[in-house]
Amino acid sequence: MSEHKPLGRTGMAARVAQDIPGGWYVNLGIGIPTLVADHVPAEREVIFHSENGILGVGPAPAKHRENPWLINASSQRVSLHPGGSFFDHAMSFAIVRGQHLDLCVLGGFQVAENGDLANWAQSAEAGTGQIGGAMDLAVGAKQVWVVMEHTTKGGEPRLLQRCSYPLTAPRCVTRVYTSLAVLDVAERGFVVRDIIAGLSFEELQARTEAKLHR
Amino acid sequence: MSEHKPLGRTGMAARVAQDIPGGWYVNLGIGIPTLVADHVPAEREVIFHSENGILGVGPAPAKHRENPWLINASSQRVSLHPGGSFFDHAMSFAIVRGQHLDLCVLGGFQVAENGDLANWAQSAEAGTGQIGGAMDLAVGAKQVWVVMEHTTKGGEPRLLQRCSYPLTAPRCVTRVYTSLAVLDVAERGFVVRDIIAGLSFEELQARTEAKLHR
Amino acid sequence: MIDKFVRSMAEAMAGIKDGATVLVAGFGDVGAPNALIEGLIEQGATDLTLVVNSGGRNRVAGAEPSGLTRLVALGRVKKMISSFIRAQSIAGELVRAGKMEGVVIPQGTLAERMRAAGAGIPAFYTPTGAGTLVAEGKESRWYNGRECILEEALGGDVALVEAWTADRWGNLVFRDASRNFNPVVAMAGALTIVQTHHVCDLGQLPANEIVTPGIFVDRVLHVPAGDPRPVA
Amino acid sequence: MIDKFVRSMAEAMAGIKDGATVLVAGFGDVGAPNALIEGLIEQGATDLTLVVNSGGRNRVAGAEPSGLTRLVALGRVKKMISSFIRAQSIAGELVRAGKMEGVVIPQGTLAERMRAAGAGIPAFYTPTGAGTLVAEGKESRWYNGRECILEEALGGDVALVEAWTADRWGNLVFRDASRNFNPVVAMAGALTIVQTHHVCDLGQLPANEIVTPGIFVDRVLHVPAGDPRPVA
């Protein structure tokens, strides 16, 4: 077994941030995705959308400058970039569903090689679940990137031929950032773009159910 | 023939205004309906909606106080009542279609005894016509009152068993104000509420194609 | 004279019936009409259908449960429509025990269904939820190469709203991210009840800045409620 | 740095293709992007589908015809979708002569179809137009005892907008009743081009007062165009 150090939450967030071009409108989901904003250099102007009705979300403010009326979709107190705006939920999801966002970054439980995403429930139990804005974002953003651990804590693969959990949306994911690799979702399936240092393609494949392509 | 003097445009508008209770939200169509606002006493607070995105339309301003950016749906320069608001066309017609208006007052070519209204075209010629906001208002307002001459200039009746012109909306009119009478549209047809002085029920019937009820 | 201000919570809550569908604005505690929810607990209506974005949030150790959670825990809600009902929340446990019906729907669909109700649009197609459990039992068709499902308007007998400032016509403005569901809920309620932090004279709200025109509002109660709770 | 300002009309109009669907805001002359329409005349694109509320207004004796009317009179418009095409207008005459296709639709449906395009809603049911000529060829079904017809989203390749003030992110505010179709058109265009009376630095427009967030806007041209023409 080769020497390799999987990316942690911060490392994954920073890796995603590298790939976001200036000028993009981006929504960041709950969890690791929320951390991405901290790693986009200040001189690169990216406009962050939050589904609770904000464009131009800025970083967490200093404690004495907190505004209790200004939270992001993860319910964290945030600031507003000059040029930011507030609007209602119907408008916020018009922006999402209407394909005006260049990108959303979502957490995931499972991603299938055809781009299916599962990130809101681990079983089909009726009447409970945490859909939030994920289904709208998954169908609405021009690019859907998923960031997650490459496997579950128990070592079960999350990159699958077919999702076993209930879907968030079919065929929506365009790229996956894991603790071990960056993979594009292409016509033929997962195409590996980047692997962390010290891990071979074969070793990555061994931790992945779906077939990987170079 | 008895002595009678049909109401003119101003008389009809004033007659309509009499019946509008304070506190109602009201849209006034193009033509005679627009005149109605001038006859609502200032102490009776009625809120006028204009489909180009205004609630709280006020009277025409003095020439030196005209605001070129503030017109009503008839493209006349108007003023704004304190408490008035501006919004976009989607919101304006959400108000209309969503049945939030208590009343719209529309002009008409023909009204049928089942409440059908024709007010946008005199023939079914494809590709031209003046629908404007009338179809939305006719289906959306809680009450639809039509104000019009009782007959055409040529003496043809406008209160009919069935409209011959293209419909604005079926079964929408709740009351008609004409130069000769006020009529409710009820389950059994036109019910006369009021006739101008000097005209008998029979004389009114003679100028009306549809059967009138007392 | 039009005056939508009411002078007491009892007046604000008058006439809410058992079995009513109640739309509640807010995203977490920000923009949530918490005083009105307390009023509803007090008022007593039961067998409610509650429509609210996050109806089943986690318990926070040491914190007083929200009014919404207490309303649910009191058994007053027979059905909850929400984008977020955690299995471990009080609402989630009632759902799993079969004591309350839970319906989890996408957040954007929730907003659009209420907006549709307010706008007189009885149903619309949306790509959101197509090909998922959300689509079960719904009509679908393809537009521009994407499957879309038919969703119906979701109006309420009652809508509960929190505003920042209101005037006697019921015109409303909101503070920052507390706008969220408030304008949407306001337009979708047959009886729209507002709690407002501030009141002002007619004409003090600039006409270009009014977010919710008073036509959507029936009653306004002045409740200077203070800032939303800190996030747990 | 994001900067949506363009420095010339040529830059504003770049890339508009023959055959494009062009959405034009305005209610009469108020809120109409008249300078951009002049730019479009100059730019030369033809075979256009023009979507505009009142495409066929009466001739006004002695007055210069509007830019819209001249665009139509030049034969550059193959199809007009509008709530208002008078038979005696220049557009109406072209339609009656079979030289332009005219489609007259209800004003609220026009606004809602564009809003739907911007909001990712491919189609919706509405009671407006049911039982009339507007319903011909359209699906219908009954909701709550009323017949409703299915209307589809109406998006544009290009949207032309007039704003009062804009910043470099493309955030817009509008003056009084000139708001009308502008926010709706702005969200429905694949390429949204704005003429603005005033410009300001980023952060000068209060976040609670921005009506059209810049995400809907692609290009902004500063055109201090003066007041709308007096009504004839």
Written account of the structure:
The complex is a heterotetramer, with two copies of chain A (214 residues) and two copies of chain C (232 residues). Chain A has one domain: Glutaconate Coenzyme A-transferase (3-Layer(aba) Sandwich), CATH 3.40.1080. Helix content of chain A is 17%, strand content 28%. In chain A, helix 3 runs parallel beside helix 4. Chain A is of the alpha/beta class. Chain A contains five helices and 14 strands. The mean pLDDT of chain A is 96. By secondary structure, chain C is of the alpha/beta class. Chain C has one domain: Glutaconate Coenzyme A-transferase (3-Layer(aba) Sandwich), CATH 3.40.1080. Chain C is built from six helices and 13 strands. The interface between A and C is large, with 44 and 54 residues.
The H-level CATH homologous superfamily of chain A, spelled out, is Glutaconate Coenzyme A-transferase
Spatial separation of the terminal alpha carbons of chain C: 45 Å
Poorly predicted residue ranges of chain A: none
CATH fold naming of chain C = Glutaconate Coenzyme A-transferase
| Amount of beta strand of chain C | 25-35%
Total count of domains of chain A: 1
The pair of chains with the biggest contact is:
A-C, 44 and 54 residues
How is the secondary structure organized here?
The complex is a heterotetramer, with 2 copies of chain A (214 residues) and 2 copies of chain C (232 residues).
Chain A lengths: L8 H10 L6 E4 L3 H4 L11 E4 L3 E5 L20 E8 L2 H9 L5 E5 L2 E3 L4 E2 L10 E2 L3 H7 L2 E6 L10 E2 L14 E4 L2 E6 L2 E7 L5 H6 L5 E2 L1
Parallel strand pairs in A: 1-2, 1-5, 5-9, 6-10, 9-11, 13-14
Antiparallel strand pairs in A: 2-3, 3-4, 6-7, 11-12, 12-13
Chain C lengths: L4 E2 L2 H5 L7 E4 L9 H10 L4 E5 L14 H7 L3 E6 L1 E2 L4 H7 L4 E4 L2 H13 L3 E4 L13 E4 L2 E7 L3 E11 L5 E2 L8 H7 E11 L19 E4 L10
Parallel strand pairs in C: 1-13, 2-3, 2-10, 3-4, 4-6, 10-12, 12-13
Antiparallel strand pairs in C: 7-9, 8-9, 10-11
Helix pairs in contact in C: 2-3, 5-6
